[in-house]
Design goal:
alpha+beta, Alpha-Beta Plaits, five-stranded antiparallel beta sheet, four-stranded antiparallel beta sheet, 9 strands, 29% strand, globular
């Protein structure tokens, strides 16, 4: 038996209740040291279907009012009998990660090419924005944001590049943050600047081990792999 982790949290509100995942087992809270682990019992690695991913996010998002939240990526499995050991081995990094996100949420600002957009003179730009142009726009957002921690990401191919900037924003300052970046959104030409959130701080979680290949195989099949031998 395994537990599928959703989040490691501090100060989960007493009134918190997990969303129903019927017919799957509902998430439960296990306290290890001073931390609360939100997890569900599973027999094998869950399939990453669209529905499963959405339900995973729903559970994580339900913890957003906790004092600090470290979201776990979908597919983070730990043997049920070793949960305390898993947390204990990572306690320093978990404590440090929770301290960094305490009282904060993630705001994600998407930078999307507007097909058919016109510039200030009414002309259509000859070329869509490339990664460098989106990075420059992201830099302007960062300059105005007054936020110390952020992550820039770019994806797509030439002619269809998109980007996003994730900001770690104190929960009480979300409205002020949106006001500060509004001038960039109103003046961007050919690019839609789309703030989303607040979200759990997925982009600011320290690296935590995924299960080994042997653990994944055992979780999927219910049988442990035989020991590997190395020759030579």
């Amino acid at each position: 038996m395994y537990v599928h982790l959703y989040a490691i949290v501090e100060q989960l509100p007493p009134a918190w209740r997990p969303p129903s995942l019927s017919p799957e087992p509902s998430p439960a809270v296990t306290h290890v040291a001073e931390l609360a682990v939100v997890a569900s019992p599973v027999r094998r690695m869950p399939e990453p279907t669209t529905r499963a991913l959405a339900r995973h996010h729903e559970v994580v998002a339900s913890t957003l009012e906790a004092g600090a939240v470290l979201p776990c990526r979908f597919g983070t499995l730990v043997p049920a009998t070793d949960l305390a050991g898993w947390v204990g081995a990572r306690l320093p990094i978990l404590r440090a990660g929770l301290a960094q996100v305490r009282g904060c949420v993630e705001m994600d600002v998407k930078l999307l090419h507007l097909h058919g957009a016109r510039d200030a003179e009414g002309a259509r730009p000859e070329d869509p924005p490339d990664a460098a142009a989106l990075r420059a726009l992201g830099d302007r957002l960062v300059d105005l944001s007054d936020v110390a921690r952020w992550r820039f990401r770019c994806s797509g191919a030439a002619g269809n590049v998109a980007a996003s900037v994730a900001f770690l924003v104190p929960r009480r300052e979300v409205a002020a943050f949106l006001s500060r970046i509004a001038p960039v959104a109103s003046r961007a030409e050919g690019v839609a600047v789309v703030p989303t959130g607040p979200w759990p701080p997925y982009s600011f979680v320290p690296p935590l081990d995924r299960p080994s290949l042997a653990q994944v195989a055992e979780a999927q099949t219910g049988r442990a792999l035989p020991p590997r031998t190395v020759s030579g």
